[in-house]
Specification:
Number of domains: 1
Strand order of the largest sheet: 4-3-5-2-6-9
Mean pLDDT: 94
Order of helices and strands: HEEHEHEHEHEEEEH
Low-confidence stretches: none
Strand content: 15-25%
Number of helices: 6
Oligomer: single chain
Structural class: alpha/beta
Number of strands: 9
Largest sheet: 6 strands, mixed
Distance between the termini: 40 Å
């Protein structure tokens, strides 16, 4: 275990969190992060995945990449993205994935920390386009347990898959840091 992983593990423990699962075994994947109700979800997820030996990338709006915050975000796996065109955003992430043999992309399908029942399906397109698996990652602020979750099989019907995924998350009875901001349907 690396020094960085040990430090992240200790910090996660000091914050009261339990890492439930090891990193994803595949070289390339998408790990969903639900429920996303606070900026703290990013830090807790980073500490978790690093502590178990993983290295994940995540999309961050390009406006956040100003010094010194931008340097920190890049060091933590942040990829600056332009959110004005969803199609360009998805294509740019696929291009980033193709640069590396190992690429774990962590993202929040909710797309915002505000309450929203309509989750974004960009991850579905990326997964189908690249043939990579999707995991149902979670952070439960009620129990302070965090994991990469189970692998979910996708079909060619993004809408039906999204409803099924939202139901799977609902069945997990997760609590967000700001519970009023978490809606599955």
């Amino acid at each position: 275990m690396s020094c960085k992983a040990k430090i992240c593990g200790k910090l996660l423990h000091l914050l009261g969190w339990t890492a439930v699962e090891p990193p994803v075994p595949e070289d390339r994947c998408i790990i969903l992060g639900v429920p996303h109700t606070s900026i703290w979800d990013f830090l807790i997820s980073y500490l978790y995945y690093t502590s178990v030996g993983g290295n994940a990338k995540c999309m961050v709006k390009k406006e956040m990449f100003f010094p010194p915050l931008g340097w920190l975000l890049r060091a933590m796996g942040g990829i600056p993205v332009d959110r004005t065109s969803p199609t360009k955003l998805v294509r740019s992430i696929i291009a980033e994935m193709e640069k590396d043999k190992t690429f774990h992309l962590a993202l929040a399908p909710e797309g915002t920390r505000k309450p929203t029942a309509r989750w974004k399906t960009g991850f579905h397109f990326i997964a189908k386009e690249t043939g990579i698996p999707v995991y149902l990652g979670y952070f439960d602020w009620g129990t302070k347990r965090i994991g990469r979750g189970q692998k979910v099989e996708l079909t060619d019907d993004a809408k039906a898959d999204m409803l099924r995924i939202q139901q799977m998350y609902e069945d997990m009875h997760l609590t967000g840091k700001n519970p009023k901001n978490y809606i599955t349907h």
